[in-house]
Amino acid sequence: MSKKQDPSVWQGFKAFLMRGNVVDLAVAVVVGAAFTNIVNAVVKGVINPVVGAIGTKNLDHYSSCLSSSCQGGQGIEIAWGSVLGAALQFVITAAVVYFLMVLPMAKFLARQEARKRAKEGAQEVMEVTELQVLKEIRDELVAQRGGTHGGGR
């Protein structure tokens, strides 16, 4: 009985893997990992040195103490520099994804849609024109036979 169920489970798993959204998700994860490496390099190589011109070179060293003293591991220390660094990495990642992937793809799809609409509009005009030509041919044939068509002649 389990032998009969195994092929159907395998076929279901295979169908799941072959769906387009699973492949798209896998590509997104790989591209996201690559962008993460690029963004981390930009933050470490460009942002941190710029911040270092003002203070320390590492944002993780920026912190504030909530108690009177944070010496020797005592007190409550808020490491807001690491939060700022993470926020900068997020904003840079979002900007890279938007400006290098989302915006160009949206423009490309809009151009494709405009071309499609233009083709459809041209086909409608051609169909109307062909219909008019056929009506004129019909009217000419009727006139040549000496008959009347539509009460106008």
Task: Supply the key terms.
about 75% helix; mainly alpha; elongated; two-stranded antiparallel ribbon
In order across it, which strands form the biggest sheet?
1-2
Overall mean pLDDT stands at 78
Shape: elongated
Radius of gyration: 34 Å
Largest sheet report: 2 strands, antiparallel
Would you give an account of this structure?
The protein has three helices and two strands. Strands 1-2 form a two-stranded antiparallel sheet. The termini are far apart. The chain has helices spanning 2-18, 20-54, 80-145, and strands at residues 64-65, 77-78. The chain has 153 residues and is mostly helical. The radius of gyration is 34 Å and the shape is elongated. Helix 2 (20-54) packs across helix 3 (80-145).
Helices and strands in order, then pairings?
Elements: H1 2-18, H2 20-54, E1 64-65, E2 77-78, H3 80-145
Antiparallel strand pairs: 1-2
Helix pairs in contact: 2-3
Outline of this structure?
Helices cover 77% and strands 3% of the residues. It has helices at residues 2-18, 20-54, 80-145, and strands at residues 64-65, 77-78.
